[in-house]
Design goal:
With 937 residues, the chain is of the alpha/beta class. It has four domains: 164 residues, Nucleotidyltransferase, domain 5 (2-Layer Sandwich); 146 residues, 3-Layer(aba) Sandwich (Rossmann fold), CATH 3.40.50; 158 residues, no CATH class; 209 residues, Rossmann fold. It is 47% helix and 12% strand. The protein has 38 helices and 23 strands. α33 links the parallel β19 and β20. The longest helix is centred in the middle third of the chain and has 39 residues. 44% of the residues are buried. About 1% of the residues have low confidence.
């Protein structure tokens, strides 16, 4: 590729449409290419291609192409020759261009010129944005008439490429030079792009580059700019807030209504506000169930913010989902702050708010600096390092949540995030973890997630600044999150990653030896480090071998002792009787050998670290980073040893142990507390002056007693407020007649028929909730072609993307059916013009009966199913039901395809848990008609 500036080169933007994603089996059906130089389009090429096979209904719907159009098109032999002539030796530009090239290579068309991938370039240059062509076009304001047509997509790709050139040119020359280096060491084709950018006039500011493309002084200034002054001193004694003034904010035509046109007064919201204010003032614990539409966030935010300001005392708010955390920080709290500026009834003067997350959410500048300076990097490693470099030009938080990180990059992020409990100064004095903690120390209101809240309690880490008042939203997750926080999971991959970091080709042993290059350290110190590094390499290799054997024997034990056939959702509980089975003693012996090897690796780490002590002024490469990483790895080595030892040898009766299995079939070692009530009682409820738990689903049959027992909450005020919505007007509850129970003949066919009928009559806009991935997959395969024939897309979680990706796809085209599992039972809000019209519940959401923690906890009850299993399923059922009606004007249909709702005694508990809806029982064949009549379609 010529090294002339990109705006002076002639390039070709290329896109293909195909019958599927497999270049070996699927066919090309359309080719589009645009030849351009800068902003000038020189020529374009377009042709349909005859695939000599039928187009699936999905592809017809996806592309808009008709079978008769492609059947009359020329064969690829003709089109391929024309395309090759059109491109010639010019560089290619494409979005995920390797996909297109794989189809062309398979059919004999190859290009020797460089190929630039706008997906890869956008991942680096626009690190905060999703990388699909649709998302990028929307973000950049690139016009597009018909996506998923080859020529139109090629045009969009051309526009995108030119915008990326502009984006790169705005970066400083030092940044571009480092991006070029990173692309070169990984062999990425992006190196041609950045090499050409270097030849263009730099639009970015010319700054002194201190470290790898980052001006550390500017970064330090950004971190300091986010720090407010010190908090005001608290009064001698806490005082209550003026509840009446706060309640007036929520009155009809009140101040809040003027800020939010269309906001309606809800007595339930006012009642909750009063209870929260009282609990904070009196130092009481409070449990509040607030139905959908109550507006519980304002009901607890207003008194919490007012109380925190008046008393200069810290209030912590914990949420389970990122969505709610973002809503609080970006929408609700700023709105109330603005309201307070104009309303004397809400005094929020000098209120300071901060978000605090766990260490793994923050970039460790030291670890990134060390990683990006490696002599060789994989394409994924280089891309993530480059993405972070561009992000570092403007981030003030170093929070992973600001980045769009792919699944492949997520594992690599773990090696770049804050590693240990000890803070380090970091190169140039940059530490995002320390900065986040300092912001929280100065804040009156601190927003955290459940995971950090409970991990902080479990480890007694003191990550969250001292606080006495806590509000837990989405509190129905608290037990599960506490179970995770007070437990552990160890996989072979955890050990492998650790051993690779110690003794791999780019591990600490090798890095310690290389650090002496060009240093002033004496030969005796170099020799001591070299000897210690050799010992660590040997110890790491031995530990790796022993642990590999340990997990091999664990896998065999799992296969021999579990009753069910191999499946990704299965696990083997390790009880006392299991430990008495043949084969367990072999695991104990293997663990003894593994533990000895881990001990030796720990000693070798200490020796290597000791060999480097006192050399901070000797000019060793990345000295502080190296010493800090050695300390972290020593701590992690000990943590791995202690947890694995407990699993194999130190079984505790108050804990549950099990062997799990991941998607690749590898076993994991797991432990969790049998009961979290004592842990939460001692570390949370007894320690805090007031803890307020709230959610839309906390009570079982109108009682909080089961929840309080499971959480260890002995004394608390209680409030249960229903939804202000008129569900009888808003929801048609359908339980079709004649449907067989799940897992019996005829049920699956009935489920498929119901989905097709409902989705067709609702015009898509349908969510189908499953309790297993296997059932989802089978149903998706059956209904997809039938729905596609009606112009409705069927999207399956785990098949067509992750939850976030499915939501994005739905928002682009709501004429779709979402088939989903666990994460869609709650926390999904498809409101507004994209609101759902129908919800189909495939079966009642009982826990997996063999799940180890569920089984162990069930044993604590006299009637496990009715006292424990049913109440948990009812709460989950209510969460699923809540996905449909999100606003007062919403209207929709809920279809329950589990006949046990009416045929089994426990079904009444599910029905009684729902608000009063309009209930109908149509024959299955008339289900669609009933839905259509209700929706008025």
């Amino acid at each position: 590729m010529a090294t002339a500036p990109l705006d002076q080169q002639t390039l070709v933007a290329l896109d293909l449409e195909t019958t599927g994603l497999d270049s070996q089996r699927d066919e090309i059906i359309e080719v589009g290419a645009v030849k351009f130089r800068g902003q000038e389009v020189l020529e374009s090429y377009h042709s349909l291609v005859n695939p000599y096979r039928p187009l699936s209904p999905f592809i017809q719907s996806f592309t808009g192409l008709r079978p008769d159009e492609v059947s009359q098109a020329p064969p690829f032999a003709v089109v391929g020759t024309e395309l090759a002539d059109f491109v010639g030796e010019l560089p290619l530009v494409g979005h995920s261009v390797n996909f297109d090239l794989s189809f062309l290579r398979r059919r004999g068309v190859q290009f020797s010129s460089p190929c630039l991938d706008t997906n890869e370039l956008a991942a680096v240059l626009l690190p905060r944005v999703a990388h699909s062509l649709e998302e990028l076009a929307l973000h950049l304001g690139i016009p597009h008439s018909r996506l998923h047509r080859a020529l139109e997509d090629a045009q969009v790709t051309r526009h995108l490429f030119l915008r990326l050139v502009e984006q790169a040119a705005r970066l400083g020359p030092g940044v571009i030079a480092e991006l070029h280096r990173l692309a070169s060491v990984s062999g990425s084709s992006a190196r041609y792009f950045f090499q050409a950018i270097e030849g263009m006039p730099a639009a970015g500011a010319s700054t002194t580059v201190v470290l790898g493309g980052v001006h550390t002084r500017a970064l330090q200034d950004r971190l300091r700019s986010t720090h407010d002054g010190p908090r005001a001193k608290p009064p001698l004694a806490e005082a209550g807030v003026d509840v009446e003034k706060l309640a007036q904010l929520l009155m009809p035509q009140g101040p809040l209504a003027r800020f939010l046109p269309g906001l309606e007064h809800r007595q339930e919201q006012t009642e909750m506000l009063r209870s929260v204010a009282s609990a904070l003032e009196e130092g009481q614990h409070l449990v509040v169930e607030a139905g959908t539409g109550v507006g519980k966030t304002f009901a607890y935010l207003i008194p919490a913010m007012a109380f925190a300001v008046k008393n200069r005392t810290r209030v912590v708010i914990a949420t389970n989902t990122i969505n709610l955390q973002d809503q609080l920080m970006k929408k609700d709290i700023p709105l109330l702050m603005k309201l307070a500026e104009e309303e004397h009834g809400l005094d929020l003067k000098d209120l300071k708010v901060a978000v605090l997350k766990g260490r793994s959410n923050y970039l460790c500048f030291r670890r990134w600096s060390r990683a990006r300076s490696a002599e060789s990097l994989s394409p994924d490693e280089a891309r993530l390092a480059a993405k972070v470099l561009v992000w570092l030009q403007d981030t003030a938080a170093g929070d992973r949540g600001e980045l769009h990180i792919s699944g492949r990059e997520a594992r690599l992020w773990e090696g770049l995030s804050g590693p240990s409990s000890q803070e380090c100064q970091g190169p140039g004095g940059v530490c995002f973890v320390r900065a986040a903690r300092e912001r929280a120390e100065k804040a009156d209101l601190v927003i955290v997630n459940h995971a950090l809240l409970l991990t902080d309690l479990a480890l007694e880490a003191g990550i969250i600044p001292e606080y006495k008042h806590l509000i837990v939203d989405e509190a129905h997750h608290l037990e599960d999150e506490a179970t995770r926080a007070f437990g552990f999971r160890l996989s072979q991959a955890d050990f492998e990653e650790h051993f690779e970091a110690l003794a791999g080709g780019r591990g600490l042993a090798q890095e310690a030896v290389s650090a002496y290059r060009g240093s002033r350290a004496g030969q005796d110190r170099q020799g001591a480090t070299r000897e210690a590094a050799q010992a660590l390499t040997k110890a790491g290799a031995e530990a790796r071998t022993r642990v590999e054997l340990l997990f091999l024997l664990t896998s065999r034990f799992l296969d021999e002792h579990r009753e069910a056939p191999v499946g990704k959702d299965e696990a083997l509980r390790i009880s006392l009787s299991t430990r008495a089975q043949p084969g367990w003693s072999d695991l104990e012996v293997a663990w003894d050998e593994s533990e000895a090897a881990l001990d030796e690796a720990g000693r070798a780490l200490g020796t290597l670290k000791g060999s480097l002590e006192g050399l901070e002024d000797m000019g060793l490469l990345n000295y502080e980073s190296l010493v800090s990483e050695l300390a972290y790895r020593a701590d992690w080595n000990e943590s791995l040893r202690q947890q694995a030892r407990q699993f194999f040898l130190g079984a505790q009766k108050e804990r549950v142990y099990w062997i799990g299995i991941n998607r690749e079939g590898s076993p994991s070692l797991n432990s969790a507390p049998l009961n979290v009530s004592g842990l939460l009682k001692g570390s949370l409820f007894k320690e805090k002056r007031s803890v307020i738990l709230t959610s839309a689903t906390l009570a079982s049959a109108g009682s909080f007693a089961p929840l309080r027992a499971r959480l260890g909450l002995e004394e608390a005020q209680e409030l249960l407020v229903g939804s202000p919505f008129d569900y009888r007007r808003a929801v048609l509850l359908c339980i079709p007649q004649g449907v067989k129970p799940p897992d019996t003949a005829g049920y699956q066919q009935a489920l498929e028929e119901a989905i097709v009928q409902v989705a067709q009559r609702a015009g898509g806009r349908t969510l189908v909730l499953f309790t297993s991935h296997s059932s989802l997959g089978a149903t998706l395969e059956a209904v997809r072609p039938r729905l596609a024939a009606q112009g409705i897309r069927a999207l399956g979680q785990g098949v067509d993307g992750l939850p976030r990706q499915l939501m994005e796809t739905y928002q682009q085209d709501p004429r779709a059916v979402l088939l989903a599992t666990a994460s869609f039972w709650e926390g999904v809000d498809l409101a507004g013009d994209l609101s759902l019209k129908a919800l189909v519940v495939a079966r009642l959401p009982f826990n997996v009966p063999t799940e180890p923690v569920f089984v162990a906890r069930s044993e604590l009850y006299q009637d496990p199913f009715n006292e424990y299993g049913v109440p948990l399923a009812v709460l989950r059922f209510r969460q699923g039901f809540g996905r449909l009606i999100r606003r007062k004007e919403d209207r929709g249909a809920v279809v329950i395809m589990d006949s046990r709702l009416l045929s089994r005694p426990y079904g009444k508990a599910f029905l009684d848990s729902l608000p009063s809806c309009t209930l109908v029982r149509p024959p299955l064949r008339e289900l669609g008609q009933a839905v259509s009549q209700w929706l008025g379609f």
